[in-house]
């Protein structure tokens, strides 16, 4: 499915089921399936297109594996139109004159070279069956390039319909074969991939049965529902099969020949365990939605829930990296930038240059700070209640401006009246700067006398924990602390994550607050606060209390939330402008609708082998070179909430394109010498008309009467 580094990742993650060796021993194999395209490319490249080298490679494979019943040889035929445009654009992008005598584009369905090599291989098979007793006892099936479908798809479809019973070996260098074999549920499949280095062959072996079992065992904790003590063994097996099916389905979002990858997956591709990160999202789904599809038919409600997870766990993390809310390396966080802005506002005597010196000259952040500093009488959080209510209060372990230190036992809090008429909270006359803990402080104060519970979780140091406990005590709140050793800790983490993307209401009204970025680092503590005794209404308005650079309360402050909404909208528009040069709402709706159709079509193609429409393809007004799927948040917004259109995927009775028709549509111009004079005229006609449907129909009409006298599939019993 085009997942980058899949073989390498499987070898690392499941060494008992996947291994590499310079020798291969597979005993008791009844059926050998060979995806011949890699053999054609390797043999033709080594021998400059000599047919004998290719036939010898096939003979060596049979001698190595020694199948006892069936030999199935498959060459790539015409793929669905969904892939054709991608092939054409990719070939044009990589266009260059051939550097060797043999042009690799000769290995395209419909070329004269392919017709000759297929005829030669058929003669070779007949010769071996007459002269070799090992071949004589085999049934041989040869599926040539005139048989529509990709080689690995034809093999898997044969296994799906006739592969029950016996042990099967699939010889293929395509990563599709591993995932497709997992999806078939056919037992006893072994996949072998061959690589040659300095003329020495190396074999990578995948035991699909063991791989499926190890995947189910490793990722079973992602299943959020309880199995129950009375669950039968068949029910548990089916449950684990469904888990593997869903994990394979999730790999579609990493991109393949039919679908572009999701935007957040592209950012993960440099990470060695990005497939783990993608599959881990499955654990955020409620149990009732952990059935994403049934043999290729997508479950609409589960898919919408998956999109919510993608939007929160994937895209919002990308957005936070974009705006700098998460501190990565030496990058300044948005919090530090805001603190500098407020520092300038509250200390007018300080030169702007001193504060902005830590920023790169001419940077956007520096300009932003200087622009903000020109504003007068702007104080983010002020106290508007009577100062006497707070003056003289003692709170331990409080962070000071420019550093963190515990208060002395006799430390006093006071107020400083600013130019706008409000008051700033001070310690010994110094203003306390804390833009992020305002909401927490207010919510804790408002909680006094309320029956509700406030949960705070995040990356909290012991000093911060003491401060929260001391503040809770001053407000007459019960404070319950859980850490990772608590049995309920994991379930509380899941509950908060679920509410985070499930709640449709304003996030600032939530009774849960996160400190830090919990996507990048798990919480250290969860603190539950509950009111006790009589109401203690200490605070009426926003108060700057305490904060450090790593205290970032997400979704808590209404001001921050509004600013976040603006920045998020700008980020989303920039995303479509970069990848599609169109950020209009009608285009995004059109893109989302077609992506959903393409996803439904691809899922049926991979899991059921069903090509509902050979002519279904991405429309011309959606550029394929963008290489990225629409945002999950937009899919949620623009797709029909009932998602009924997957019950009515595009269906057509039209047959697959002819091999030569497909060849003329994807052959790059520099390789037209491979074509006949007549074919070059037709190829030019298609190119001049932008490969329009009318031009294709004209070409199809001229080619349809030519069968070349080659059977689509040859069978020797």
Give a verbal description of the structure.
This protein is 43% helix and 12% strand. With 717 residues, the protein is of the alpha/beta class. The chain has 3 domains: 1-221 and 646-717, Rossmann fold (3-Layer(aba) Sandwich); 223-325 and 554-639, no CATH class; 380-551, no CATH class. The strands form 5 sheets. An 8-stranded mixed sheet has the order 1-7-6-5-2-3-4-20, sandwiched between helices. It has a 5-stranded mixed sheet with strand order 16-18-15-17-19, sandwiched between helices. Strand 8 and strand 9 form a beta hairpin. Helix 2 (36-47) crosses helix 3, helix 7 (151-162) runs parallel beside helix 8 and helix 9 (208-219) crosses helix 10 (233-251). The longest helix has 24 residues, at 300-323. The chain is globular, with a radius of gyration of 32 Å. The model is unreliable at 324-409, 416-425, 431-439, 501-511, 516-521 and 533-560 (pLDDT under 50).
Q: How is the quaternary structure best described? A: single chain
Order of strands, widest sheet: 1-7-6-5-2-3-4-20
Radius of gyration: 32 Å
Q: In percent terms, what proportion of residues is strand?
A: 5-15%
- Residue share in helix: 40-55%
CATH top level assignment of the largest domain = Alpha Beta
Number of DSSP helices?
A: 25
CATH architectural grouping of the largest domain:
3-Layer(aba) Sandwich
